Every structure is written in structure tokens, then in C-alpha cells.
What we know:
Elements: H1 2-6, H2 8-29, H3 36-46, E1 49-52, H4 56-61, E2 63-64, E3 68-69, H5 75-82, E4 90-93, H6 98-109, E5 115-117, H7 121-127, E6 132-133
Parallel strand pairs: 1-3, 1-4, 4-5
Antiparallel strand pairs: 2-6
Amino acid sequence: MKFIIDNWYLVFVALASGGMLLWPTFKSASGGSLTPAGAVQLINREKAVVIDVCEADEFAAGHVGGAKHIPLNQLEERLPAVVKNKALPVVLVCASGARSNRAVGIAKKLGYENAQSMAGGLKAWREASLPVEKA
């Protein structure tokens, strides 16, 4: 105990460096780690279904090409009808990524284990210069 008291700064440095090493693990576990490029690969290679969980006016203003619109408050009721095959990857998108992170939890509760949120949402999609459709 005397060592810890006399060398508190060493203990602090050890704990801080351990926290920094573990940070990427915790960050990726929280969802929203799928980049727009990763989403494109899932769409092209694994036939992922893109679900936009924005409100109707946001969806009409612009959305990922081919995305299906299900507002977040209707996701639990409508997702099983829109995506019947639960083995397909599901990419959830919203304006900034916050709602789609919540949508991942709902989708996984429904049995869609391959559900992922796109980090940064439609904003990141646009910044990557990927095509946007308007309704």
C-alpha cells in the first residue's frame, strides 16, 4: 500500500494508458462503426437492405439510393414486413447516426443480428460524395 501511495502518479499513468488501449473496443461495441464505404460494400457484395429511419420530410429531402423508409417509431412493427430474411445484413441510416444507433437495438431485438448503423448517417454519406435520391 505504501508503494501505491508513494507512486500514485505511476498507478494513474498505468490506468490511463490501459483505458486508452481499451477505448477502441468500447467505441466499436456501441454501434455506428460502419463507414459509408463499408455500407456500399455490404450493399454490393452481400445484398444488404438499407433502411432509413428518418421522418418523412427528411426522407423526402434526400436519402441513400434504394433505401426503404421506416420511421424509427414504426420500426418494430414494419421491419419484419419489409425485410423478411433476417440473415441479410441491414444498414440503418438517419440524418446524423443517433436514431440509427437506437434502431440497431430494436432490429437486434427482432432477430436481425446483422443490423448495423452507418456512422455519421446521411451527412457522412454525402461527405463521401455518394449518390443521394430525393422522393
